[in-house]
Amino acid sequence: MINMSNLTVEPAADIGKELKLIIKKLEFNHIESRRVICFRSKGSSSRATARIWSFPKIWQRALNLPAYYIIEVISEKYDRLDLKEQRKVLIHELLHIPKNFSGSLLPHKSRFARIDRKRIEAYYKKLV
Questions:
Q1: Predicted TM-score (pTM) above 0.85
Q2: Which of 50, 65, 69, 99 is 20 to 30 A from 108, comparing alpha carbons?
Q3: What is the CATH number of the domain that holds 57?
Q4: Whose CA is closest to 2, among 27, 93, 10?
């Protein structure tokens, strides 16, 4: 566990299991689930329910490591949601990962695809 002032961050194996299920069922074959690390934070002042962190190419080269992503769920918001809404949040975060799994992030509005409620809902229906 990492404790930064009032913020605590700890590994979230339960989120990792859920992500692996989503990745497999939605056939997000471009996502290497073993390189998506999950954390649960408590005490964050963020308005977000969850967020995804990138590992930019410059850091990959400097440390001689492949691309990784971190998905952080904000406990105070995420844990209150029912399973359906939690899964939609995770789908949303996964949609930020580009097809080349480069370590960069896709914005909500890109020339490739939009990350919006309609698209997330379509993926959720495919999931269940």
A1: yes
A2: 65
A3: 3.30.2010
A4: 10
